[in-house]
Amino acid sequence: MNLSFFDQFSSPTLLGIPLILIAMVFPALLLPSPGNRWINNRLSTLQLWFINLITKQLMIPLDKKGHKWALILTSLMMFLLLTNLLGLLPYTFTPTTQLSMNLALAFPLWLATLLTGLRNQPSVSLGHLLPEGTPTLLIPALILIETTSLLIRPLALGVRLTANLTAGHLLIQLISTATTTLMTTMPVVSLLTLAVLLLLTILEVAVAMIQAYVFVLLLSLYLQENI
Amino acid sequence: LTRSLVPSAPAALRALPPPVAVGVLHTTRPLHTTQQSLAPLPPLPEKGGEVRHGLIPEEFFQFLYPKTGVTGPYMLGTGLLLYFLSKEIYVINHETVAAACILTVIIYGIKKFGADVAAFADKLNEEKMAAAVAMKNEAIQTLQTAIEEEKKEQWRVEGRSFLFDAKRNNIAMLLETNYRERLLMVYNEVKKRLDYQVAMQNLRRQKEQEHMIQWVEKNVVQSITPQQQKESIAKCILDLKALSKSAHAAV
Which InterPro entries match (chain A) (predicted)? Predict the structure, then answer.
């Protein structure tokens, strides 16, 4: 199995059958559905506690109308968290490294928040295009800038996630290749590189969790503006 | 679920020609209507299955023990690994190093925080149980207090007659006292009025006496003529002289 650097980013297929769907659905298999017991096992209890924590954090700034978004935001959070963390295991495929998937997640959700705002409170939504207290001369320029910033949001959301994860995975690959190559010629340098790799792995774990959280948090912020 | 229901088919269905009998679902009892589906679930086992090295169930080691002893599974694992490596079924590439790193991080994390996370999960469950148990105990306590209060009330009911007698006596005494007070008041009032009458009579008599005395004295003084006055004065002087002589003699 000789891997090039881009094999981990290609959509997995087995004998021509695309496995991308299985790769995306797999994290759901790791979450036990709460049984009809009053006291559950440790995993179910921890999962319940964690989901409660996330939902509370996301829903506190929103008013009652925003609570309709609780399910999609929490499930999005769990999905991103698990796919990102599972992608750190060797020989796994991370769906969130594909720009297509991240844009497919970001664009519709962002558009939904925008359309909700424009439909229910159009003047308030458009009012967000002009920050308070700007000097009168700057108003046209600022409106253009704010509109650009608004329209670039889905792109930013998708590309941020893709870039972070792809860069992290690529770095891990490169540094581990360097370690492997140097092991035969300069073992000491190889060990140093291994230390760098360990630190990088810890960073990647943190980045995986943070990126998932940032994605969902930004979406909830866009929702707050527009609900 | 591969319950062979054909042998238990009723005789009427067995009489049908085979193609129809094969396609028909033969059941002798209706499904999911008995209490079995609604019965309380059996209790969960206290601990999960025993696992060695966090991955391999203990049953695997027990399975190999009779034939290969204690070191059997380890030999199998080592042999398998070396086989994969030597035949290049598993190729050592950069992913191996990355795998080693991520496994180190994962195992370190589990060893360091595993017990704490488990204790936290147990604590969450314990708190849930404790809240329910506390509610139950509180309800029991409330009911017991209610029972004791009720018993005390029943004991109080027995002493009711004594209480009423005491109250009755109290009231009778009050009435009696009130009556006596009023009697005394009446007596005092009547005495005051009678005393007033007596005082009036006494005063009248005294005034009459004084008036009479004064009248008598005035008349007497008026009736003394000058002649009588001179005679009486001369007699007094003679009496005095006689007295003084007798007094001189006595001394």
Answer: ATP_synth_F0_asu, ATP_synth_F0_asu_AS, ATP_synth_F0_asu_bact/mt, F0_ATP_A_sf
